[in-house]
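Per your request, structure below.
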């Protein structure tokens, strides 16, 4: 089931999500809903707080090559356990901040530990777009948005644009 995505500013996007104690059928269904929502948006990553769910769950799929098989990942309680000294700059966007993009510098490679939908512990090293995406989504679980890495004036301008967008959308629904 496709879920509505929260738009910044929303206080739920600035909270730290609590860890998940047990992987339940409801949480597996939530992960499926999040993947459906992410693909429909379209996006390459989505965190539970972005749909108003206060829990440590992210989904992502950074396969973009035409004809390549998708690689959907659902990560419960993901955490970066190692990062490279080498840094990368990617132009990031966010489904909660539509049509806004900015360059953000992050570690080029990260090793992440998480629990998969079957309850198994997993660990993988990501680089390139995958590394950027997983860090961006884990940030959401800690109440951090990619615009928080920008200079204050640029962040304020983006926030004002999002406030206007939310007002415009509310007017359209009325």
């Amino acid at each position: 089931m496709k879920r509505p995505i929260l738009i910044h500013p929303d206080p739920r996007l600035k909270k730290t999500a609590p860890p998940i104690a047990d992987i339940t059928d409801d949480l597996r269904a939530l992960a499926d809903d999040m993947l459906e929502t992410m693909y429909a948006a379209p996006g390459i990553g989505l965190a539970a707080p972005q749909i108003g769910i206060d829990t440590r769950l992210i989904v992502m799929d950074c396969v973009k090559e035409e004809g390549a098989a998708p690689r959907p990942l659902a990560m419960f309680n993901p955490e970066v356990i190692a990062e490279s000294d080498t840094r990368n700059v990617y132009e990031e966007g966010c489904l909660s901040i539509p049509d806004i993009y900015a360059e953000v510098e992050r570690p080029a490679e990260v090793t992440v530990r998480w629990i998969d939908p079957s309850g198994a512990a997993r660990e993988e090293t990501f680089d390139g777009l995958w590394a950027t995406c997983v860090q961006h989504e884990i940030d959401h679980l800690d109440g951090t948005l990619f615009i928080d890495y920008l200079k204050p004036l640029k962040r304020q301008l983006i926030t004002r644009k999002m406030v206007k967008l939310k007002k415009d959308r509310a007017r359209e629904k009325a």
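Strands lie at 45-47, 57-60, 73-83, 87-94, 97-107, 109-115, 121-127.

Regards,
D.
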